[in-house]
Design a protein that fits this description.
The chain is an alpha+beta fold. It has a single domain, classed as Glutaredoxin. It has nine helices and ten strands. The chain starts with a helix and ends with a helix.
Length: 264
């Protein structure tokens, strides 16, 4: 448990390096019919840029972890795109396959934002992502390398489902482990839709009962989670392969390690 507290502290500091990016997003996302697919790894600064924009647009997407030393999906990227570079983004709705983080970001705003234009704050990034790289180091470089201590297994029959948002430190811990175990999953974004959403589920900046925007994405997710307090808590993991559903990051980590991280 002490080790988990250390991970939480590091994840919080890592999130702070990027400020508010990867926290807030629209309540009414333009989710495409066919799943967006992102081949990436948690510790990559360039992948983090893309994930931040996905949260801003509140888009759900499939994640195929490609940690360094991984064998499951890195070869898929090479086969599809011709080179092993990350992130690698596949949009079957438009037929596009993109490598460069800046091109992916422009694509996302063009097709899945209300204006179709990339905001100036997301239009240009430093060539070298020093800030995001610092965040990776602060986080102990978790989610960079494959966990070689386990025997390689086939991916589960059904994708795991994870609810969270990019800058959530507790979600970051779970995503890092999923990357290291090369477990593919659907990331369901639960961006904060307005200032009343700010704060932990147990303590909001706005006093009194919590109410999500009517018909917004959070309102629908509250119903899905079956939260009696009518609030949102992340991370939330559902494993359709075992019918397990968990909220607490420590419990999720324990479950993933036991279910998918123990050598056969």
């Amino acid at each position: 448990m002490v080790n988990h507290h250390i991970k939480v502290t590091q994840a919080i500091l890592s999130s702070l390096t990027e400020g508010s990016r990867g926290m807030s997003g629209t309540a009414f996302p333009m989710q495409p019919n066919r799943a967006l697919k992102l081949y990436e790894f948690e510790g990559s600064p360039f992948c983090r840029r893309v994930r931040e924009v996905m949260t801003l647009l509140n888009l759900d997407y499939e994640v195929y972890p490609c940690p360094k030393g991984g064998e499951k999906y890195r070869s898929v990227v090479k086969k599809l795109g011709g080179k092993m570079q990350f992130p690698f983004f596949v949009d079957e709705n438009t037929g596009d396959q993109l490598y460069e983080s800046q091109q992916i970001i422009q694509h996302l705003f063009k097709h899945y934002s209300a204006t179709g234009k990339t905001p100036s704050t997301y239009r240009y990034y430093p060539k070298l992502p020093f800030v995001a790289f610092a965040g990776t180091l602060i986080n102990g470089a978790r989610g960079v390398w494959v966990n070689k201590a386990i025997k390689q297994r086939e991916a589960p029959a059904e994708l795991l489902q994870l609810w969270g948002f990019e800058s959530s430190p507790f979600t970051r811990i779970v995503r890092a482990l999923l990357t290291e175990l090369e477990l593919p999953f659907v990331f369901n974004n639960v961006a904060k839709e307005r200032w009343q959403d700010m704060g932990l589920a147990s303590f909001r900046l706005k006093p009194g009962p919590y109410h999500a925007i009517k018909a917004g994405k959070r309102a629908k997710i509250i119903e899905l989670m079956g939260r009696p307090t009518q609030d949102i808590q992340v991370p939330y993991l559902v494993d359709p392969n075992t019918n397990v559903a968990l909220f607490e990051s420590a419990e999720i980590v324990k479950y993933l390690e036991q279910q998918y991280g123990t050598p056969e």
